Amino acid sequence: MYIIKLVEFLHKILAIPYLKSPDNPTSTYRKVYCFLLMLGVIYLSIWQLSGKFGDVYPIFKPSIVLLDIMVCILIAFFDIYDNTVRIFLNEKQFCRFYQKLKRIDQFLGLSATKSYFFSGIAQYKTSIITMHAIVFATFCSDLYSNTAVMGWHVHKYNMANFVLKYKFTWFVVHLHMSANAIRQRFCLLNARFHDIIRYPKCETHILNYMKCHDMLCGLIEFVNDTYSFQILILEKIIALHVIETTCLCLWFASENFNAVTFLNNFVWSVDFMICGALICFSLGKASAAAQRMVVLCQNAHCNTKNPVKRKILMQFSKQVVLTEPDFCCLGFVSVNYSLFLKLLTSICNYIVIVLQFDE
Fold first, then answer.
1. Rounded to 10 degrees, what is the CA torsion of 246, 251, 252, 254?
2. Which helix (H) or strand (E) holds 334?
């Protein structure tokens, strides 16, 4: 209960977009507060970059400076764009998303859920507590070590980035919970469909499962429409940030070694890589669960002699193939395990290029 209260408090203070209930949309006061914080992000980003040009960037190599500028701009743009999309543009669609989820749960016989967001927090509370412990411990350690090495007048410009990194991590958690909610319902639907198609007279049940599958595919389309551009930016932020922290690790190791600073940069790299893995693997698993229905229909179609049942199963499999239930960015980049491997390859290649650039 306390973790849920803490999460709700942090979401309200930092204006992290979330929908408490589909019947309880964001108030006008909260929208005004979010807009003011977005203006604050713009101001802090300008203050941060202007301050770093005078006090921080002269210390580092040009490649690290360029990477840091790109990360600062992208992560601020990501926060503003995500807030705009989720709070101001697509709030009604978010309400419909949870209303459809409620209808699907009723069809599958699942117990009613007052708030899918808070039930997700309760389900993953151990992971969320661990995430907060690591992030805040790293922040405190980073604050102590970098202030000791560079001084507070230099390190103070990194404070704005910490809040944005924290909100960035919550975006990943939100998307991970949504993907897992969709995957779990697809898996349950597949299991029940596998059981029901063995009965002689199950045509009506199959048609109902077709409707439920179509609603779940609609949830995938919603995620693609709402999050695809953010996922694309997220991939770039992860790659650039990991390259930057890796270069900082190498720079501190060779020029001004400090074990705590080295460890902090390493932990930030690992944290962002875990964010990328969570997105790719959770969305990839949900896509695989959605596409499994085609195999079930084809196997049942081959093993049944009832012509009506065969026709319905064939229609169902065609519907799934035409729908193409797959998480993707901008309609052409599939978000799955292969995207994470591409991300790792890109990071390794860019690190080599950056190191050669500095020589």
1. 130
2. strand 333-334
Q: Alpha carbon 77 to chain centroid distance?
A: 16
DSSP state of 358: H
- Count of structural domains, the chain: 1
Q: How far apart are CA 292 and CA 179, in angstroms?
A: 16
**pTM (two decimals):** 0.86
Q: How many CA atoms lie within 13 A of 283 on its CB side?
A: 31
Query: How far is residue 350's CA from residue 356's CA, in Å, rounded to a whole number?
Result: 10
Name the token pair of 69.
């500028």
> What would the pLDDT profile of 98-150 be if each residue is shown by its tens digit?
888 888 888 887 777 777 777 777 777 777 788 778 888 877 777 777 666 66
Separation of alpha carbons 245 and 68, rounded Å: 9
Closest CA to 312 of 323, 320, 325: 320
CA separation for the pair 315, 309 (Å, rounded) = 10
Structural contact between residues 19 and 98, judged by C-beta atoms closer than 8 angstroms: yes
Residue 3, C-beta contacts closer than 8 angstroms, at least 6 positions apart: 121, 122, 125, 128, 129
Q: What is the CA radius of gyration of the chain?
A: 23
Report the run of H or E that residue 117 belongs to, with start and end: helix 116-123
Domain span at residue 330?
A: 2-358
